UniProtKB/TrEMBL annotation, chain A:
It holds the Pfam family UPF0172. Residues 31-165 form the MPN domain. InterPro entries: EMC8/9, MPN. It comes from the Eukaryota. Component of the ER membrane protein complex (EMC). EMC8 and EMC9 are mutually exclusive subunits of the EMC complex. Belongs to the EMC8/EMC9 family. GO terms for cellular component: EMC complex. This is ER membrane protein complex subunit 9.
UniProtKB/TrEMBL annotation, chain B:
GO terms for cellular component: EMC complex. Signal peptide: none annotated. This is ER membrane protein complex subunit 2. The keyword Metal-binding does not apply. InterPro entries: EMC2-like, TPR-like_helical_dom_sf, TPR_EMC2, TPR_rpt. It is found in: Endoplasmic reticulum membrane. SUPFAM superfamilies: TPR-like. The lineage of its organism: Eukaryota, Metazoa, Chordata, Craniata, Vertebrata. Belongs to the EMC2 family. Component of the ER membrane protein complex (EMC). TPR repeats lie at residues 180-213.
Amino acid sequence: MHEDDSGVTKKRTLQLPSMSVPLSSHEMGEVELSCLAYAKMYLHASQFPRCSVNGLLLSSSAAGGAVCITDCVPLLHTHLSLAPITQLALTQVDVWCSQTQQRIVGYYQANACASDSSPTPCALKIAEKIFEQCNNAVLLMIDGEKMFPGCRVPPIVMYERKDARWALKDKHTIMLRQWEETCSIVNQLFSSGDQALLVDFDSHLDDITKDWTNQKLNAKIMELVSPANGNV
Amino acid sequence: MRKINIESTLYSQLIIDDENKLVIKFQPKTNVFLYCISEMRDKLRKWREENYRNSEQIVDVGEELINEHASKLGDDIWIIYEQVMIAALDCSRDDLAWSCLQELKRQFPDSHRVKRLAGMRLEALERYEDANKLYDSILQDDPTNTAARKRKISILRAQGKSSEAIRELNEYLEQFVGDQEAWHELSELYINEHDYAKAAFCLEELMMTNPHNHLYCEQYAEVKYTQGGLENLELARKYFAQALKLNNRNMRALFGLYMSASHIAASPKVSAKVKKDNVKYAAWATSQISRAYQLQHLPAGVMLTSLALSISSKTPYTTAASAGVAVVIEIHGRRQT
């Protein structure tokens, strides 16, 4: 596909600090993925390597212009295509978002079969529902084959809604701030054992004392993020 | 560290370190050794018998047992080699898997069981052709070898060939009707293919042979709910209730009961009595949920608000979600009323 040389060049352009690349409102179609969202998605996929996992992408910024994915909520790791728990989770997250001034702007999924990162019918259906509420919703598939340590390319394939279907997004419009710092933060989480703190909605249903909003883990990640650079 | 034996107990020594601080250092003594070994053996046995897949832990405990205390394990060592090898494959520890396999090959040179383990290692290395050849050779020798047949089906699954895996698994189950593991695997395959009717059939088989298993009831109810339509929702509600009867702490069943009862109550096709009954069931479920959260001193706020909203269909996801039940059936190409 398009990794290594071309991927490295692309990564260098993504390294530009946010200040010099203003996200103006006419730059439609741009998607920014924060360290927090990326880290939690990655941890979720790593926690259940034998299952398909999914979750929702959230944004705390106002609608219009570029999409800033600031957080994510890991949802399920079992029976992604069964309705009751998915519906329950969607409603819960929706209500929580309205209470915390966030919006659901996308959906992510990692397939159990690492070599197949194409969206499943279930992924497309849920993304459709999100698109009905948010017209620049994104569908993000995690590419299991790129999730090895030392991989220089983000293991992400993003889709957007174009002409009534989900089409691959242009890699140039996907911004991952401070990619190397993000990678190192994820590594730190693994080496400190904090990756086990991640709770998804399924785990919450198994034990309701576990917090599916992941306040503790969020705090830990934000701690690691802030010394690296002034503002993320 | 300066080791000054101030006190030497069976389990620990008190030591003064370089900064003149008192430190307890664990000092292994012979009987503490044995105590640890039997604990580790028990853990491995428990994980083996209950079919846990906590491979990282198994590798941690098992590797130490094998490397440090092999001589004290007796005949257990062979089954431990097998258990650790499979766990090692799961953790991409080919070095450990290979050494376990070598020990087993040496001890049991012509064993089909060991051959199957060799096949699993080939699978882990994604050498599916070679693995298949190995399993075929086992089956030539012994056509009733279920393990080899199931591995071949797993290869199909790993390669993404779901329909072939389903076909093979069906053929297998015609011969080996009592294989619970296979029935469950088949239900999973059907769920992934959105063939909910067939998944329900598999779960019915499992419920028949395991009437006290609340998880099968709850999963069956979820499949029925996903199929949608009034009749299926009523069945779903009944099986969620059954799951709760078997285990009153199954939160999925509780939420499922709430959601199926609410959908039935909200349906325009039901009589006033049915509506009233289901509103009652939904209200009961809400109170149980609220109680469960309050017992844990958790804010039930978000959960209950969203449930209340979903009864009155005020959130886009429930209105979309109830449409979602119908949408999911549409994938399957059949409309059920």
